[in-house]
Amino acid sequence: MAGKRHGTREARLPTKILWIRRTRVLRRLLKKYRDSKKIDKHLYHELYMRVKGNVFKNKRVLMEAVHKEKAEKLREKTIADQFEARRSKNKAARERKANRREERILLVSICVRFAAFAPGSISPECRLEVAHDDPRS
To answer: Which of these, 95, 33, 91, lies nearest to 59 by C-alpha position?
Structure first.
């Protein structure tokens, strides 16, 4: 009988036992990562459900998935920060442009009023502004 196998592979080491061992190892790793704050509770839950669904065949694959998810989340955060910075910069530029436009309109209206009262004594800036915006010229 030496060197002979008795019983099927399933009888010698049931796949259920293998499944239980692998699942426990992966769940233990997830708990360790969650407790050490490497992953948050949302990512933990998502990966836990994927472990239950037999997505990861061993610990190494699960660790690679964790690193990939964290890198993806970090990339999305940097993109969102850049987008927010661009939005705030554009908003500030729009505000500056609107303020300059209001100042120019105010200056023109003052120059036009002043020119109506004292036509000969207009400053050079007002002459330029009035010449551009005055409908009489």
So the answer is: 33
